[in-house]
Write a structure and sequence with these properties.
Layout: E1 3-7, H1 17-21, E2 27-30, E3 33-36, H2 47-51, E4 57-61
Antiparallel strand pairs: 1-4, 2-3
Length: 62
């Protein structure tokens, strides 16, 4: 399973909740924004997507 994680930076408010909730090290905070650093470690738990208050994160399984 390959997971594609997209972050809509026009919606991101910089709350860092997605980075805090990710237990797999997929997201990191860099230059005042979240970035996907290790998509292969994503367990498709959707915690970051569910936690995002502005719905800036989406996942797609391919």
């Amino acid at each position: 399973m390959v997971v594609e994680i997209k972050i809509d930076y026009s919606r991101c408010v910089g709350c860092k909740e997605c980075v805090k909730v990710c237990s797999f090290g997929v997201l990191e905070w860099l230059d005042d924004m979240p970035v996907v650093v290790d998509p292969n470690s994503c367990a498709f738990c959707l915690d970051c997507e569910k936690t995002c208050p502005t719905k800036a994160i989406t996942h797609k399984e391919s």
